[in-house]
Amino acid sequence: MKKVRKAVIPVAGLGTRFLPATKAMPKEMLTVVDRPVVQYAVDEALEAGIEHIVFVTGRNKHVIEDYFDIQPELLDTLTRTGKLEQLASLGRLQPQPGTISFTRQQEPHGLGHAVWCARDIVGDEPFALLLPDMVSYGDKGCLSGVIDLYARTGGNVVAVEQCDPMDTGSYGIVGKGAATGSGFAITGMVEKPAPEAAPSNYYINGRYVLQPQIFDVLSTQQRGAGNEIQLTDAMVRLSESQLFFASPFEGRMFDCGSKDGFIQANVAFALARADMRDSVLAPIEEMIVSSRRSTRAA
Q: What pLDDT does residue 222 have?
């Protein structure tokens, strides 16, 4: 069993759910409190032991490359003005040379196509996949649990959470098989099934460990929903010859590609910080009370 050393983070999407903010700014650079969304994905990958991160970018995403580069003028200014705490914080976030790669997805053909674009950099080894819109919140990052289960099972592992059984039509749903360690075997995968047809209420939440054979499958994958090359379709084909397992995430995943998920993430992460909780909690409680009064009055 090969170690999972590399992670793919697709950042080529247009962010249409967040217009007009994303008209000129990549959605991955929107901030949750004081860090871009993409930084949370990178932190989670490093926490899980990932050594090399591959970004699949698109046009107008150069600011992401700039963000992970050194900015001498900024560092010099912080040094001269004595802002050593901020300087140290930036130093902790700076990737080591040679640990980040970028490749282009020239045309938006879907998530499956974006993953396929990373094939030459990943090579013939298992890799992690993190969808940066999905921000992990919990005592331990979601990907750590996925890699821990992979070390026990091998094969392919996806992170899952439970949704309301009536909401299965919004997610990729997996069938639940025999328990394996902290997870379970996957008996099938269905994209957005009706509640009465869903095999369970466990949905795929945007964290994966996949074997490199997925690239061969994606190279011949026909277009699916939205006329795009769907990763779930390719995983279903790969499951005919390889095992898939599910790693339930005990924390919470915020969909920061949506407005409501983005706001919820900002509130959750702000309240979790000792330097912000007291100054944020009281105004939020006041706004909730005021909103309820307005609703009753209406």
A: 82
Enumerate residue ranges in the chain where pLDDT < 70: 298
Q: How far apart are CA 205 and CA 207, in angstroms?
A: 6
User: What is the reported pLDDT for 103?
Assistant: 95
